[in-house]
Automatic annotation (TrEMBL):
Residues 235-378 form the Thiolase C-terminal domain. The lineage of its organism: Bacteria, Bacillati, Actinomycetota, Actinomycetes, Jatrophihabitantales. It holds the Pfam family Thiolase_C_1. This is Acetyl-CoA acetyltransferase. InterPro entries: Thiolase, Thiolase-like, Thiolase_C_2. NCBIfam families: PRK06158.1 (NF004811). It comes from Jatrophihabitans telluris. Transmembrane segments: none annotated.
Length: 379
């Protein structure tokens, strides 16, 4: 049974103010349902992930919205959770376990002056074997991967910086993006070094924000307000929790999740018109491009420069401005899906990729720990 995304919403990126994480999610969910032409009473499945909102977040969101869910999923594998939720929702719909699924996420981390992610707080379990060495997380893990990639393949800091510059060019076309001022490679390299080799402008933003996505079966999707965006393939993989247990620092599990997603969709990487990749740090999309098969291992840096991933290039990537310039409310994966849907609908305004028919959204979680890939199409 086919499944499609029929409603989307991004919300609260201007700042949460006094609104709670739960309120942001509920508001985003209501907007996404309105976008689809549905109401909360139509929803029979709820999916969400949170680092600190509740130990039963999907139950809490359902209660707040008045949803009587017969299918519930609070899977949390970090920033890739929402791509994984798409796969779970699609499978549940195919199995007849639900018909209309609402996926939500929200964070007020900036307004409450917090960066309360999984690596913060008391050191527990396997983290105890890394903490004594003073590795700052999550950035330290990504810095290790970046330095290893530079050592193995000659990747340069200028190539890393180009990722940030290109996403800023997209952000300049997006009125919702937090950072829109022009950015140069020199600006990135002149920004403070946070963890060698990653500078301040190699790092994602810390913002508030919420997002929501509505997924339903084909029979419902074809009779709603918006043109359906079809879920063609999905895949999830994870290889480790702590970076010291990552076998190859330059080879995250995107290779496995991507192979499953592209295989299910019956499409190749070079058939994607729009590419939305998690960019927690500038090294992250470089590694992902290689593992998804857009280029060979070690070629990610030159690929970014030669193909051009900004608005004037030949490889449209992170077209809303990404976590580096659009916004990053702690877990960014849901915003990759929202932007991919917007591009396939033709609703992206000045940043619209002409004739986009296929898109990939790929989330990354933890210390390069988890990967989830979704292939979407229209028509």
């Amino acid at each position: 049974m086919k499944a499609a995304i029929v409603g989307i919403a991004e919300h609260g990126l201007e700042g949460a103010g006094t609104r709670s994480e739960l309120q942001l999610q509920a508001e985003a969910g209501a907007i996404a349902l309105e976008d689809a032409g549905l109401v909360a009473a139509d929803v029979d499945a709820i999916f969400t992930a949170s680092n600190d909102m509740s130990w039963i977040p999907s139950v809490l969101v359902a209660e707040y919205l008045g949803i009587a869910a017969k299918y519930s999923d609070s899977t949390n594998i970090g920033g890739s959770s929402f791509e994984a939720h798409i796969g779970h929702a699609t499978a549940a719909i195919a199995a007849g376990l639900c018909e209309i699924a609402l996926i939500t996420y929200g964070s007020n981390q900036r307004s409450r002056r917090s960066r309360a992610l999984g690596a913060s707080g008391p050191v527990r379990l396997t983290q105890q074997f890394e903490a004594p060495y003073g590795l700052p997380l999550p950035i330290g893990a990504y810095a290790l991967a970046a330095r290893r990639h530079m050592h193995l393949y000659g990747t340069t800091q200028e190539q890393l910086a180009q990722v940030a510059v290109s996403t800023r060019e997209w952000a300049a076309l997006n009125p919702s993006a937090k950072m829109q001022d022009p950015l140069s490679i020199e600006d990135v390299l002149a920004s403070p070094m946070i963890v060698d080799p990653l500078h301040l402008l190699d790092c994602c933003l810390v913002t508030d924000g919420a997002g929501a996505v509505v997924v339903t079966k084909e029979g419902v999707a074809r009779n709603l307000r918006r043109e359906p965006v079809w879920v063609l393939g999905h895949g999830t993989a994870h290889t480790h929790a702590t970076i010291s247990n990552m076998t190859h620092l330059t080879q995250p599990s995107a290779r496995d999740s991507g192979a499953r997603a592209f295989g299910m969709a019956g499409l190749r990487p070079d058939e994607m018109d729009v590419v939305e990749l998690y960019d927690s740090f500038t090294i992250t999309p470089i590694l992902t491009l290689e593992m998804l098969g857009f280029c060979l291992p070690g070629e990610g840096g030159p690929f970014i420069v030669d193909r051009g991933t900004g608005p004037t290039g030949t490889f449209p990537m992170n077209t809303n401005g990404g976590g580096l310039s659009f916004g990053h409310p702690g877990m960014f994966g849901i915003f990759l899906l929202i932007e991919a849907v917007r591009q396939l609908r033709g609703d992206a305004g000045r940043r619209q990729v002409t004739g986009a028919r296929h898109a990939v959204a790929h989330g990354v979680g933890g210390a390069l720990s988890s990967s989830a890939t979704v292939i979407l199409g229209r028509g």
